[in-house]
Design goal:
Blueprint lengths: L1 H6 E7 L8 E10 L2 E12 L3 E2 L4 E2 L4 H26 L6 H8 L9 H11 L6 H22 L11 H11 L13 H20 L25 H9 L4 H16 L3 H5 L6 E3 L5 E6 L6 E5 L2 H8 L20 H15 L17 H12 L1
Antiparallel strand pairs: 1-2, 2-3, 4-5, 6-7, 7-8
Keywords: DNA recombination, DNA-binding
Pfam families: Arm-DNA-bind_5 (PF17293), Phage_int_SAM_5 (PF13102), Phage_integrase (PF00589)
Family: Belongs to the 'phage' integrase family.
Length: 372
């Protein structure tokens, strides 16, 4: 009996952080060998009648009597779970207890299971790169759970405001163990947005009563976007580079002269190039990010670059792309090498190409097409 007290305990408490009006939700914490498992009793009761020492409500109201009945039923279920494990001669540890206790609950009641549900329901509607970002958020969330609660997973209905705030702080380095990149405020907010979306799925299925991530109100830091000046573009254009880097440089400059994003460059095919009413070449495509239709006239520098990529488009090849694009990560890595050779001190990424002020001569050339 003494050994059981040392290794196993049950405690009920009122979660004051979720108090609405004068009532708070009732929770149960089972501790096995120092590891905690929190269970939402799915019952709210007034704080006034709660006796924390006696672990029961002392009032005579119907809500308090029902709350005491809920706790008694939960104690019985906990004892029944222990008896099941003993009959199976299974080890009394947190993992075995939780699996036995949750037998019959929905299949997506844990964090990892909920993210898997998100992959099934929403994953097919997202880009592969976006799905990878959700995987990163899941890994960081489970790492936080392991660090903070010493658990390999966590019950979704036990996530509350305090959990959300601590995870947000964890992303920025709070109580973070081992190596790993610490997020900026904006980076942490991206992870919280993805967690909010996943938790909304649980809310829509009535697996949780409310989405605690909605209680996080943090303003993003304003970031000054990098941009290129005409002098810097000229340095990049004239830089002497090895063939592999020169090809990437030309694709980057094409984005500079057209403002096309990386993903839209990847998807570009000859079918996107047409002859306009001004008898010059235009680009027509739907932006992958927004779905909006875009029509752009090709300025002379862009046309010259486009002509240089004819050799990359063999006739008869299905779904042939105009540009031999590398991955975004490899592209940005090589662009830093190009910038160093060109003597450009700014942190160059492919996205920076969209922030370039066209010279007056190029603007006039474009304007003449419309008036001629």
């Amino acid at each position: 009996m003494n050994e059981k007290k040392k290794t196993f305990s049950v405690r009920f408490w009122m979660r004051r952080t979720r108090t609405q009006g004068n009532v708070s939700p009732l929770f149960c914490r089972v501790t096995i060998c120092g590891q905690r498992y929190e269970i939402n009793a799915n019952f709210c009761a007034p704080l006034k009648g709660w006796d924390a020492k006696a672990q029961r409500f002392t009032g005579r109201s119907a809500e308090e009597k029902n709350a005491n009945r809920v706790m008694n039923d939960m104690r019985i279920k906990i004892e029944d779970t222990l008896n099941k494990l003993r009959k199976k001669e299974a080890e009394i540890n947190l993992k075995n207890f939780r699996l036995a206790f949750e037998d019959g609950k929905n299949d997506y009641s844990t964090v990892s299971a909920l993210f898997e549900y998100h992959r099934i329901i929403d994953g097919k509607n997202l880009e592969p790169s976006t799905n990878l970002l959700y995987d990163v958020t899941e890994r960081l969330l489970l790492r936080f759970v392991k660090t903070r609660y010493r658990l390999s997973d966590y019950m979704v209905d036990a996530i509350d405001k305090a959990f959300v705030m601590e995870f947000y702080a964890f992303l920025q380095g709070f109580r973070r163990e081992g190596k790993g990149r610490v997020c900026t405020v904006n980076g942490a907010m991206k992870h919280m947005q993805r967690l909010k979306r996943v938790m909304n799925l649980a809310l829509q299925n009535d697996w949780i009563a409310s989405n605690p991530v909605c209680t996080l109100h943090v303003k993003r830091n304003k970031v000054e976007r990098g941009y290129l000046e005409q002098e810097e573009v000229e340095k990049i254009r004239k830089a002497v580079l090895p063939p592999s880097h020169a090809v990437l440089r030309d694709m980057f400059l094409f984005a500079v002269y057209t403002g096309i994003s990386y993903v839209d460059m990847v998807n570009m095919t000859p079918e996107n190039i047409t002859i306009g009413i001004d008898r010059t070449r235009w680009i027509h495509f739907n932006r992958q990010k927004t779905g909006l239709r875009v029509s752009l006239p090709l300025l002379p520098p862009a046309e010259e670059i486009l002509d240089g990529f004819e050799c990359y488009r063999p006739e008869g090849e299905e779904n042939r792309k105009i540009f031999p694009m590398l991955t975004n990560q490899a592209t940005n890595r090589y662009l830093k090498d190009i910038a160093r050779v060109a003597g450009v001190k700014k942190n160059i990424t492919f996205h920076v190409a969209r922030h370039y002020e066209l010279s007056l001569s190029l603007k006039l050339n474009s304007l003449q097409r419309f008036v001629s």
